[in-house]
From TrEMBL:
Keywords: NADP, Oxidoreductase, Signal-anchor, Transmembrane. It comes from Castilleja foliolosa. GO terms for molecular function: oxidoreductase activity. The lineage of its organism: Eukaryota, Viridiplantae, Streptophyta, Embryophyta, Tracheophyta. It is a single-pass type II membrane protein. This is Uncharacterized protein. Pfam families: adh_short. It is found in: Membrane. Gene3D superfamilies: NAD(P)-binding Rossmann-like Domain. The keyword NADP applies. Belongs to the short-chain dehydrogenases/reductases (SDR) family.
Length: 196
């Protein structure tokens, strides 16, 4: 929460007076995890949901002086999609097996496509930007039938008690021969990823 939420809150607090004077814009990089509730990422999901709610409220309070665009990307090539995580001791580690369990068969979008969509959308004054576009459908599924998303995540990503996470169906699915080559960019399929 310190970085994913408070980092936004403090920065906005100090920047808001200057943005008001110039009719500036705020571009918020949140995540589709704010509504998708990906298993094994509860604190991350909660922090991103808090960010979205915070800026949706500020959009009302700051209008019309400051425009706010909230970006809710799906999986984008990044250090996280390469398998970098904080372990229980707060140290950065690379764990591509857990990455495979969490990401599974969800396609990963190139960061340059996200960057272009963000710049274009912010210039247009879009309220929301979601890349890849297909991830928007999950918002409506969650809105209309939340139990479908919950059931799928439980069935696909969670193992029985005392079974390792790598036994999840999500890990077995992504390990099908050739699948990573089709749905993941080269940048995250590299067998050697540095932890620093």
């Amino acid at each position: 929460m310190d970085i994913n939420f408070w980092g936004f809150a403090y920065t906005t607090y100090f920047a808001a007076p200057y943005l008001r004077m110039t009719n500036g814009k705020i571009v918020v990089i949140a995540s589709s995890a704010s509504w998708l509730n990906a298993p094994r990422l509860s604190f991350y999901n909660a922090s991103k949901a808090a960010v979205v709610s915070f800026f949706e409220t500020l959009r009302i309070e700051f209008a019309p002086d400051i425009g706010i665009t909230i970006v809710t990307p799906g999986l984008i090539e990044s250090e996280m999609t390469k398998g970098k995580f904080l372990n229980k001791k707060g140290k950065i580690v690379v764990d591509q097996d857990i990455r495979d369990v969490i990401m599974s068969i969800v396609p990963v979008e190139l960061v340059r496509k996200l960057a272009k969509a963000v710049v274009d959308g912010a210039c247009r004054g879009d309220k929301y930007i979601t890349v890849p576009a297909w991830i928007r459908t999950t918002f409506f599924v969650k809105l209309l039938c939340p139990e479908v998303i919950d059931w799928f995540n439980r069935w696909f990503c969670i193992t029985e008690p005392r079974m390792p996470p790598t036994e999840a169906i999500s890990k077995k699915a992504i390990d099908l021969p050739g699948l990573k080559d089709i749905i993941w960019p080269d940048s995250i399929r590299c067998p050697k990823i540095k932890s620093n």
